[in-house]
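Interim report to the steering committee. The following record documents the input for Maltodextrin-binding protein (445 residues).
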Amino acid sequence: MKLKKLMVLTAAFSMAMSITACGNNNNNGGNAAATNAPADNAAATDNAAATNSGNATATTDEIVPEDGASLVVWESKEERPFAEEMAKQFTAKYNVPVKIEEVAPPDQVGKLTQDGPSGLAADVILIPHDNLGKAASASLLLPNDIFGEQTKAENTEASIVGSSYDGELYGYPRAAETYALYYNKSLVKEAPKSFDDVLAFSKTFTDKSKNKYGIMWEVGNMYYGYTFIATTGGYLFGKDGTDKDDIGLNNAGAIEGLTAFAKLKEALPIKSGDINADIKRSLFTTGDVAMDITGPWELAAYKEALGDNLGIAPVPTINGKTAITFSGIKIFAVNAYTQYPNAAKLYARFASSKDAQLTLNKLIGSVPTNNEALADAQITSDPYVSAFAAQAKSSQPMPSIPEMGNVWSPVNAALPEIWDNNADPKAAMDKAVQQIKDLNNGATK
């Protein structure tokens, strides 16, 4: 869907305001039909009262699972408690067994590309919206047709934009995500307003010999590193986020921000490879890291560990500029090669409903996309969700064109070069941009 980026941002901001107002390759686990051909979408609705016109509406009572259906669902490790609960409820209601397999959401489209045609992939996958274009353009997904109009009516505009590609709705949105600054109030009395404040605090707290650090985030991951590119003027894919040939990751603004990024090693003097989600979580919850930049998926664990000492605030400013973070929508999608398209669509709908999104918020701490869920007291009375809403006002949706998949590896290589090896930011990003352009051009030949 080639909508103006302004529309996407406006929708994201509307979502934010409404919030404040209100695995491994398993050769035996896949249920996809190993026919080397996608499921017949017409056959998928033989038992449905709705048609595949794209304008049909249906309730979960108007579509029934195929006889003997069973499902495999790919889920993230962090959100497995939610997945297990949904599987239990779905099986109880529809008598369809559901097996959960852990696969990191950013890896799922790549795994589907390999395993879908051979019948080894999950029936329902969970992906960040920026992966949608690659999957949809390769005909790996079935459209969200039976429940399409309901999905559009019930969820925020931003989440529908993120769940669509080239005018077609594919996804079943379930959560809106960006990242913010978590801090331990027993160590940091007031959230820092700037990264200069972060450095000043860290000089009094960081002690590498004791494995104590003022702040930590995944410094080698572009998802977080993009803040230091975009805040000071860098960008991805030019006007409207759709021009694959206009890449501003190495312009003067990006280099300004990445120079500030490199300076922060004074607060976090360790190698990028020594930081991952598990390490970071352990250090933050035990008080050995005072601040952590991460997303709402850590909220439940951090609240349990820190209680009233947990605080959340917007990401600190960079060189006096309000920090811009990446934002995204997590969406369910149905594998085009599934043997059980009715059951798979039914599960995707069931596990992204208002009640499901409120369950996800309760168990994990996610931010809903469902409008009624956003207006629920469970959300409106939550100061932590409100903090993410504040950051969402300054977030930038990830591009969803297929070429977005070519960005991650080059930039994820450049950031550690800058951080670990003191590489010149301009030289490192020039190399990354050239690699991205080469991949883009190769993909279109």
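Residues 1-29, 42-57 have pLDDT under 50 and may be disordered. The committee is asked to note this result when reviewing the revised timeline.
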